[in-house]
Amino acid sequence: MTSARGHSLFTAFRGARQRRAIVIDAIRSRLWPVPAIGVVAAVALGVVLPELDDAIDDNMPVTLAGYLFGGGADGAREVLAAIATSLMTVTSLTFSLTLVTLQLASSQYSPRLLRTFASDRFVQRTLALFLATFAYALTVLRTIRNANDTSGFVPRIAVTVAYLLATASVLGLVLFLGHLVRQIRIETMLDHVSADILDTVGRTAESFDEESSGVPPLPRSSACVITAESSGFLTQIDEADLVAAATAADAVVFLDRPVGSGVVANVPVAFCWSADGGGELDDDSLKSLRKRVAGALHTGVERTATQDIGYGLRQLTDVAIRALSPGINDPTTAVHALQSCTAVLCEVAGYRLGPRVLRADDGAVRVVLPRPDLPELLDLVCTQPQIYGERDPLVLGGLLVLLRDLAWVVREPEHRQAIADRCRRLRASAAAQQFDSAEHAELERLAGQVDDALAKEWCPRWMT
């Protein structure tokens, strides 16, 4: 019972982390939230600072006043108008450069990388700075009054802050251009995607050092069907809601679709059956369970990396196969993408993947979640690059290096068997090509290193 209670608390903690990650991802993946927050804060500051100016203007120390704006009302208007005009131009330029970068990334590498660019914090904060400075300058401009009015007023502190924001914007523009040049590099993009994959795995999978969730039960022949409410990609699963729904109905729920798969409305996505092993669920319980399970499965128009382990690897693989297309013909980029896949798979091999069992507080099995295992992820990474790059010995060599490095870190027999099967297929593919003898010998040497790593020969042939 203690172990079951601990497992339940761990599941709840993991669910809280996942929900927090979902909210953060929803904000980060859009360009507008951070700039919108910046505009609101700038307007508020533009209202508050002139009031502060008016309150302390007569009592301001001479030393401090010497560093503030010292012109009259007309000069203050000209400064603020110049700042507002120039910042709107700079903002338009920044948006244009961002859109050009997105277009280039989509056509040159993969359209699935657009989400990575849109979630770039530096771009979001730079746009927020520019728009905030524009909104602040306009807000302060409305408070300036000439001396021939009822009472002249120049908010010296507020105008000085506008000058400082304009200076920061100029510096931000320079840094933004440098950042944009760095972001468009393929190495940077691959590194960002790899980091997202490992973050997702760390939140959704258990390491081998953690207690196993148990062997998942299979659906029974008498299981009832649960259909999807809407069409799209399955973007997230609310694990806590699923366990609560299954516990309330005293049932076991078996999801048939992993996160990231496409679902269609009114098509089965899960099965359920009574947990006591006898009898069927009554109509009311079944109706309530179907509604709650369908509500815990969230769909969207695009895949996200919040809970989807395979999405990041899909992005890396897309970069590889796009680089192998006749229109681009860049096998070096394909090999770089395979190297990133190698590093990710070697890290993922330290986690327990495959179907996961969720239990209630009493230790009873309530939900079975499908997840891709390491052999499935290996097929995702290797299949298409092998198909489109089989005539290039550099690509086949990159795939064999991937298998060799992965073979050194895998733990499970089925994982080793999957590597051996893939190596056999690569050998056959290489043998069918009209490479010269030196290229065939190099590929066979790499394949031999895969065999050595699988056999755990600690004095392998490449060291002799």
From TrEMBL:
Give the source's domain of life in one word: Bacteria
The membrane-spanning stretches of this chain are 31-49, 79-105, 126-145, 157-181
UniProt KW keywords:
Membrane, Transmembrane, Transmembrane helix
UniProt-listed InterPro entries: DUF2254_membrane
Its name, as the record gives it, is DUF2254 domain-containing protein
From which source organism is this entry? Mycolicibacterium rhodesiae
